[in-house]
Specification:
The longest helix has 19 residues, at about 80-100. Helix 6 (about 130-145) links the parallel strand 5 and strand 6 (about 150-155). The radius of gyration is 18 Å and the shape is globular. The strands form four sheets. It has a seven-stranded parallel sheet, with helices on both faces. Strands 12-9-14 form a three-stranded mixed sheet. Strands 7-10 form a two-stranded parallel ribbon. The protein is built from ten helices and 14 strands. It has helices at about 10-20, 35-40, 50-60, 75-80, 80-100, 130-145, 170-180, 195-210, 225-235, 280-290; strands at about 1-5, 25-30, 45, 65, 105-110, 150-155, 155-160, 185, 190, 195, 215, 225, 245, 260. The chain has a domain at about 1-160 and about 195-220 and about 260-270: NAD(P)-binding Rossmann-like Domain (Rossmann fold), CATH 3.40.50. The chain has about 300 residues and is of the alpha/beta class. The model has no long low-confidence stretch (mean pLDDT about 95).
Length: about 300
Amino acid sequence: MRALVVGSGFLGAAVGARLRALDVEPVVASRHPPGTTTSSGLPWRELDVRDPAACREVVAGTDALVVVHGPSDITWCERNPVDTAAAHAGGAANIAAAADGRPVLLISTDNVFDGTRPSSAETDEVSPANAYGRAKLVAERTLLDTGSALALRVSLVYGWEPDGIRPNFFTTCVRSLRDGSGVDVPDDHWNTPVLVDDVAAWTVALLLAGRTGLLHLGGPERLTRYAWARRIASAVGADPALVRSQPRAEGHYASRPVNACLHSTRAHDLPELSALAPMGVDAGAVALTENDVVEDR
């Protein structure tokens, strides 16, 4: 089996590595070559999803697709809604046409909800919080209309991301805590963080099982970024006082929903997920630090 991962960043590379570990031949595709640490030697193809001909060419010869491309910087997307829609909504239309019935798994987002509920399930009504959520929702519907796709909405993904252009929250916190500069994070912005390895494991299991439809993946804990950052500090032996509280509206989280949290009412019915319960944030930090994944770079 040959699987194409559209997106070669932090999560795309983790999905590619998981596929390879299960004897599936992965190919990652993106507009620009991945970083050496991120790619881990995965085969790469150049692809701009806004180009229908390029999508047909790269998809040809593959058996299944995972779609996890950017842009995903929500602040940038809010300032550039046309470009965001072209990449996500337009890209999904091109991928759907090129896939021609092949299984597709789209990684989507909690930003398709407005955050008025403490946490959202698959059956809850969508109401996108921002330009990123609107573009992703169109992408979901375009691919789900093919009848051979699954949209996996994931909550805040974290892990160690040493060479990312915009490292995830965990990596940013660890670096700022270790160098003593500290972090300013909101105590009024809630998430259900999920470890990147858990997202990759779910993604590949669902793809290989041929699942379609809609599914949510959030971590088992609902907590504010402030509370989470203090627990990260404890995990890496830093002073929790280096974590400073900042209202969500005053920082770059202003365009995020207050409750960016997900839970699933469907996952427990899927046997391929029975042994893949997501880790809590403390167990995730231990897994990253004890296995020497977190390093100074």
